[in-house]
Amino acid sequence: MADAVLAVGLMSGTSLDGVSAALVRIAEPAPGAYALELVAFLTTPFSDAQRDRIGNTITGGSARELALLDADLGQWFADAALAVLARGRVAPAAVGFVASHGQTVWHEPQRASLQLGNAAVVAERLGVPVVSDFRSRDVAAGGHGAPLVPRADRLLFARPDGPRALLNLGGIANFTVVPARGADAPVLALDTGPGVMVIDECVRRLYPGRRFDEDGAIARTGGAVAEVVEAGLAHPFFAEAPPRSTGREVFGVAYAHRLISQCRERAASPADTVATAVALTARAIGAAARRFIPPALRPLDVVRSGGGARNPALVAAVVEAWRGPEHRAFDELFFDGDAKEAAAFAFLGHLARTGRTGNEPAATGARGPRILGCITPA
Q: pLDDT tens digit string along 194-233?
């Protein structure tokens, strides 16, 4: 791609799996048109100690613990960036910039959204500019600061012939419905509720030594407890109209432990409990699609990505809950779906560096278009 820029996108999601790093090449082949190529990708997993430290700091860390975690996450993000550059056989000096989403430690819609992972540390380690703090400007403009990936979804992944839904099954599940490529119409995007976060916590609690339900093997041997699913869906969040966003503050450890307790009260097995978490997650996605997608945006297909897209039990439950459109894996159409969010933030970094809008106000509720991100010079 001529006149392209190399960039690294860094992302750590609510599931606390590790740092995803995507080395991408971004070009503009024509005015208003964008092309993104994935050059290299890897995820550097967090150790159990790192994961526990992040989780404990989120739930009750002191100011000192937050400050030290911010500095250390900066080092871990820099390590991931250098590792993906090595995989792509690219020297840091050849990279135009790094875009780092950081690690969310608090998200309170329309009030504050805090991500740690000190950008100055990354800039010092790599010697290139770093774009970070993507959510704050949208929040300052009255928005949720989430979801932000819809801008990339619209400009990079739309269909030419009609609407498309892009479903992210991360720690929190969300979808974007974009109009046909080039159409001057708003997108619809919202968090649907838990993605793999509640499922993973149930697995960790009920199956010591396991972090997640690999290949959906546990859920496929259990049966969902219908009463618990219905009780879970009665949570006020699921009735909220978009714009809406959520996080670990709502669907974290405490929520998962209540689900486990409710299943135990009904003599459900551990596998039944995991299956219940899967059913709850999928039902919430399907309900949001039916309730909030207007007829003019009814998608022709649903393209799934994120860690949960590798869970056949969850995928099957989502397909059952969201009937109508064709369901496809992101990998089939574009590139490794696990890299999508990190690549999207690299693209948002490109928009920031070139002075262009990074949010979709219809998705976040912000007062208008805003350039997102703060730039730390090389």
A: 999 999 999 999 999 999 999 999 999 999 999 999 999 9
Q: Which of 156, 197, 149, 194 is nearest to 176 (CA)?
A: 149
CATH classification of the domain holding 75: 3.30.420.40
| Same-domain pairing of 129 and 232 | no
How many CB atoms sit inside 10 A of residue 32's CB? 7
Smallest Cα–Cα separation from 275: which of 225, 232, 204, 215?
225
Residues 348 and 317 both lie in one domain: no
Residue 8, beta-bridge partner list: 23, 98
Query: What are the tens digits of pLDDT across the range 138-193?
Result: 999 999 999 999 999 999 999 999 999 999 999 999 999 999 999 989 999 999 99
For residue 345, what are the contacts with CB-CB under 8 A and spacing of at least 6?
Answer: 9, 10, 11, 99, 100, 101, 134, 148, 149
Q: What is the pLDDT of residues 143-157, one digit of tens each?
A: 999 999 999 999 999
How far from 31 is each of 1, 6, 38, 121, 345, CA to CA, in Å? 15, 19, 21, 35, 21
* Cβ 57 vs Cβ 69: under 8 Å: yes
| Helix orientation angle between 226-233 and 270-292, rounded to the nearest 10 degrees | 40
Is 165 found in the same domain as 275? yes
Residue 184 burial (CB count, 10 A): 5
Name residue, tokens 């860690």: 307
Give the number of domains in the chain.
Answer: 2
Output DSSP code: residue 241. P
* Domain span at 183: 161-324
Q: Which amino acid belongs to residue 99?
A: A
DSSP string, 41-90: EEEEEPPHHHHHHHHHHHHH--HHHHHHHHHHHHHHHHHHHHHHHHHTT-
The pair of three-digit structure tokens given for residue 107, joined into one six-digit string: 């998200």
Is 257 a member of any domain? yes
Q: Which amino acid is at 18?
A: G
Cis peptide before 194 (omega within 30 of 0): no
Same domain, 14 and 144: yes
The DSSP-derived string for 163-232 is -EEEEEESSEEEEEEE-STT-----EEEEEEESSHHHHHHHHHHSTT-SS-GGGTTGGGS---HHHHHHH
pTM over 0.85: yes
Burial class (CB in 10 A: 0-12, 13-18, 19+), 205: middle
